[in-house]
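2.7 Reproducibility. Because tokenized structures are sensitive to small changes in the input, we list the exact sequence used for LPXTG cell wall anchor domain-containing protein, including any N-terminal residues retained from the expression construct. No trimming or masking was applied before prediction.
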Amino acid sequence: MKRRIKAGIGLFSMMLVSQSVWVHAAETPKIFMEVADYHAGERSLDVSCKMENGDNVTNGKLRIFYDAEKLTLTPSEAGEALSGTMLEVNDCLTGNKPEGEMVVAFASAESIPSDGSLLDMGFKLKDGVKEGDEITFQVKAEKLSGDNGDLETETPEIVYTVGKEQAEKPGGQDNDKKNQNKTDNDKKPSSNSGGKSSTKKGSVKTGDETPVAAYLLLGAGAVAVLAGCTWTKKNKQ
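Resulting structure tokens (single pass, no recycling of outputs):
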């Protein structure tokens, strides 16, 4: 009987350990803006919308905000991670978006690279903007999906100091459900001219949730069975 109890406890412990390893192994995709180059003579910036840890991503919809009071957008193009995919960009140059806002939608039959640039953009500094001034960039993942469903996404805010470096402000995790009714035809600009999204930060369910409750119930059931076996043996004695 003692062997059965030890075996049951050992099995339950292995289940908890294996489940814990699975949870910690998964990494949250991160999408952010990065200033790649500053051209002082041309007063221009090369900026990329990049992704990290985007395993098994096949499609998505992003909303990008930049400081329209300090920057003028020039034509953009697909980054290396979206090469060969279906890509739609709606901005002040190609669609109906106001200055300071862009909408990017992409889809692929296969998973795109987990790390790399999604969109490469160019900006001209407006008159009056000088080195040392701060410029804010923000991207919101309204939709990011893969083979396992919707993905929780980290989207930090980026503050770039002209001629120097950029700093990252911790951001929340985008909520697809709160943003799913937003369409590319809306013409309402961001309420913050500094490029910050007005979307509230939240938590997104991935569609592949950890069944912690099920494992606890299973463990409780195993303990009950073992206790019942012990009671039965005592009665026979």
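The helical segments are 2-25, 176-179, 212-236.
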